Amino acid sequence: MFDEITEKFEAAWKKLRGQDKISDSNIQSAIREVRRALLEADVNLQVVKEVVEQISKKALGTEVVAGVRPDQQFIKVVYDELVKLMGEANQPLAEVEPTPTIILMAGLQGTGKTTASAKLALHLRKLDRSALLVATDVYRPAAIDQLVTLGKQIDIPVFELGSDADPVEIARQGVAQARAQGINTVIVDTAGRLQIDQNMMAELARIKQEIQPNEVLLVVDAMTGQEAANLTRTFHEQIGITGAILTKMDGDTRGGAALSVRQISGQPIKFIGVGEKVEALQPFYPERMASRILGMGDVLTLVEKAQEEINLADAEKLQEKILSAKFDFDDFLKNTRMMKSMGSFGGLLKMLPGMKVNDAQLQQAEVQLKRCEAMISSMTKQERQDPDLIGKSPGRKQRIAKGSGYTNQDVTKLVADFQKMRTLMQQMGQGKMPNMPGMGGF
Ligand code: GDP
């Protein structure tokens, strides 16, 4: 995600690298690169103008701080502006008393509205908030089925009256049922069209009028760039939104939508959709998004995700082992399994700062991991705990090769790579940055 815009920003930092201070003359070319990066990311023109103006003002006015390079200082200025542009902090979903909180979902067809409704219900359940999904898209009978199926899958009730009923009436009755049953939140999925359509808007306005929602969430496809800005403007003007959900952020988006929504509507992005699965929804954090866009890597999300899955004591033990270079094959296996349990290996790699990996490389990495696992499984406990033993003994290598179906050379390479990695990790753990390709130039 954001590979392109990240690369373009890199050109801006480069303009200042090696300079001893930010000056009128050197800042201009860096700012030109920032403008170009934003425009190529399909950020709305008006938004680009405003943000670039702010960045110029701030960059020139910034005091020089000892020990900070001008390019780093400039990155910080741009980062702060992007965070501001996206709304500073995460804005949680409304919750009202008495229940139910009413959420109206709006958006074009195919943006992921129905999926997002289900994702939201699941998210709420994790917060101990019960939910009822309401299916009002009577124009595509498949849409009702889709919501019913999703509801079953996550065990969330779905209210529907088939495809002959009036959408406004379905919404009204859905909300009444949630109220009667003491359900915490009701999520009303609505019909979309391929383009803005006045009938669709009018119906949405009538539903809104009828149920008086606490939230109107516009579902925006992150892949649509500039168009997302226009869509946001129209929906906000005609219906009035309280926030947005940006879907398909797992795709190859250029970032424009993420940067435009807030500035255009004054309303925050509250969640992002990061996959087709119902679990693939994350709260939107402007700081994290800004650091992703700038290519600083979303270390925060990575850490948070890791903390959810990994027992802290385990992590500390692991760190100790890394620092003292006692990391062994057992730890390696445990670690890769832990990483797999945290989601796809590829998704994780992509979050690391400066990592530029394509799908082919990722696939190769996964295949490589499987090979490693096969060979490690053929080792004795003693060998796993002391990998250096294998390097010294041709007999051991041969046995492992035979047992795993690989060659002696494969085993030799595994052990050598492992020893290299162990040294590298130890250096990194001690705060030394080893010279690794692709680690960026911060
Ligand atoms: P609707 O017409 O707006 O209700 O859209 P749907 O919920 O039916 O979604 C349209 C398509 O987009 C489906 O194939 C979804 O699986 C897919 N989709 C929805 N959200 C995401 C997402 O965050 N990431 C990806 N990759 N696909 C998504």
UniProtKB/TrEMBL annotation:
Enzyme Commission identifier(s): 3.6.5.4
GO terms classed as biological process: SRP-dependent cotranslational protein targeting to membrane
Group of enzyme by EC: hydrolase
Entry keywords, A to Z: Cytoplasm, GTP-binding, Hydrolase, Nucleotide-binding, Ribonucleoprotein, RNA-binding, Signal recognition particle
Assembly notes: Part of the signal recognition particle protein translocation system, which is composed of SRP and FtsY.
Comment field on protein domains: Composed of three domains: the N-terminal N domain, which is responsible for interactions with the ribosome, the central G domain, which binds GTP, and the C-terminal M domain, which binds the RNA and the signal sequence of the RNC.
Similarity comment: family membership: Belongs to the GTP-binding SRP family. SRP54 subfamily.
Function, in words: Involved in targeting and insertion of nascent membrane proteins into the cytoplasmic membrane. Binds to the hydrophobic signal sequence of the ribosome-nascent chain (RNC) as it emerges from the ribosomes. The SRP-RNC complex is then targeted to the cytoplasmic membrane where it interacts with the SRP receptor FtsY.
Protein name according to UniProt: Signal recognition particle protein
Organism lineage string: Bacteria, Bacillati, Cyanobacteriota, Cyanophyceae, Pseudanabaenales
Encoding gene (name): ffh
